[in-house]
Write a structure and sequence with these properties.
The complex is a heterotrimer. Chain B is mainly alpha-helical. In chain B, 84% of the residues lie in helices and 0% in strands. Chain B has helices spanning 2-46, 49-64, 67-77, 87-124, 129-149, 151-159, 171-182, 185-214, 219-225. In chain B, helix 1 (2-46) runs antiparallel to helix 2 (49-64). The chains are: A alpha/beta, B mainly alpha, C mainly alpha.
Chain lengths: 255, 226, 214
Amino acid sequence: MNEPILRIRNLTKKYADKVIFQHIDLEVKSGDTIVIIGPSGTGKSTLLRCINLLTRPNEGQIFLNGEEITAKGINEDHVRQRIGMVFQNFLLFNHLTALENVKLGLTKVRHMKAEEAEQKAIGHLKRVGLSEHMDKYPGQLSGGQQQRVGIARALAMDPEIMLFDEPTSALDPELIGEVLEVMRDLSKSGMTMVVVTHEMGFAREVADSIIFMERGSIVEEGSPEELFERAKFPRTREFLGKISELYGKKEKKGE
Amino acid sequence: MSAWISLFQRYWPDFLKGAGITLELTFVGLLIGFVLGLLLALGKVYGSTWLRRLCTAYIEVFRGTPLLVQLFLIYYGLPSLGITLNQSTAAYAALGLNSAAYQAEYLRGAIVAIGESQMIAGRSIGMSRWQTIFQVILPQALRLALPAWSNEPISLLKTTGVVFLIAVQDLMAKGKRAAAASYNPIGAYLAVAVVYLGLVFLLTLVLKWAERRTKIPGFEMETKSS
Amino acid sequence: MDLGNFLSYIASGTLYTLGASLIALPAGLILGLLFALLYLYGGKVLSNLMAVYSTVMRGIPPIVLLFVLYFVVSGSVNLSPFLAGSISLGIISSAYQMEIIRGAIQCVSGGQLMAARAIGLSQTQAVREILLPQALRIALPSWSNEAAIVIKDSSLIYALGVPEILRRAQLISASTQQPFLAYSAAAIIYFALVFITTRLLGRLEQKLAIPANP
């Protein structure tokens, strides 16, 4: 059996007395796109940030390609080079151009030569459709363009897995499409992805598996067909129903 | 350490007197600076091109030169033009003229922030320009300016430290006397430093109290949208 | 003709004034940067220590600090009043510069550092490549102001007997009985120094500004 790229075992995170999430078990196979949905504030973002060790879990283990990254003595910086993250607020480096944003990890972390890094960076910017804008600064780009640069920046590091933390939530509606398209292409090309989002259309179309999280626990997990048409738990059906209405897609709901 | 404490015990009445003069200098300088600063700010915001340029020139000159030079110019230089001031008056004048330049900027910023919309509102109910300025804009602007402006009294208190160089008997002058008399300059000036810290602390408390007393609930939010 | 001589005598005090500023400002910057980093990243004890240092140093008039530091410095090392005074001015400025740098660093959003860590940069790399370049641009206007203040405060070394601009103006005023002229000359020279410095730093600000669409 193939070792999953990502395995999370019994993960728990608390801040003081407040439980953010607990006893999370999760597996992501190579090439899969997992979409995590659920009401806001249920720990989805924190979970993502635990995966790339930006936050430390209180309990539990995370395995990246079989290696336990939550073990003591692990070099966190090295782990983060293997995991790509795309943020809700893009978080592009404000003082650098788009090209420099993508190049930085290559020159400073992978210690590539400048010309090689530049060629690679240009390639990635082309892939997300931004080659004409590579010398622009974040302040000169639209939200959708900034987010695509953010995706290119993460991809440039050749990560084993890509994490997306509500990548389109901060975008104006007409700019969401261009970002989702990049993500769709990425998924089709075989990248392993974990996406936290409210975009149900994307989830239905692109996800190999959807996870519904609420109040710090996984309520239900399954393929898009299973969850959207035959959800086992009423709470899942309730949430999907509300969200689908909100996004204007009324689906036939099983009872 | 005990030598230092005994120095303090010996000279603290002197220091207290000096502190009184220092506070007086600060207060008078602040007052003169406020009136003049307000005029400069109004001149810059509402004046003719010529007046605006004059006010800007004043502000640039007084912010672009050291207070000590201004002080010497007024005390030592003016007599040769026929204007002779005694030490205290020269000190008040220098501190006031200097502070005015800084206060003008705080006040101007606040007046501009209150903005056009309040002027339009005032004029639209029939008030004249100056009525609107004094009844509508300034009351709001002064409150808005208070947090930033609070830097000025403290800054001025510290600035008064140089006037002992024209023989004004302020706290620093007393320190100099204590230094000479006790042959312990470091101890004397450290003692003076402690007293200044105390004065700054008291002044800060007074300013915080003033800020609380004059606050209009929700005001800071309002001005952002107007 | 005499006037020319006298004016150039006063102007030569500029060497001392500029010299003092060129010692004090960089000294204040290095110390201020160190103190700011200690305050932000040095742990609770150092952080509180730096906070106290900042409050105390900024609550005492520069002239008082100058005298204290001057006597302390010249008590331990044999330095000219000029050097002792300049170093003291640097120490005084370090407290103000610490606040400027600290404020600027805190202005850079935490998200910037998070994004830097996310692509695998170490903490040191993140601070160096992402935090400091942005903090520098934020700090520049306030720092410009501090530079002007240091030039003006350098006039305080008059009280230590250093033959800078003001001291020379005083000598000329005494020998020519033309105090107004002498002190006006001093004022004009100081003004020119502050003006030029502010303009130059303003140009630097413009050069470093990050382009953005309004």
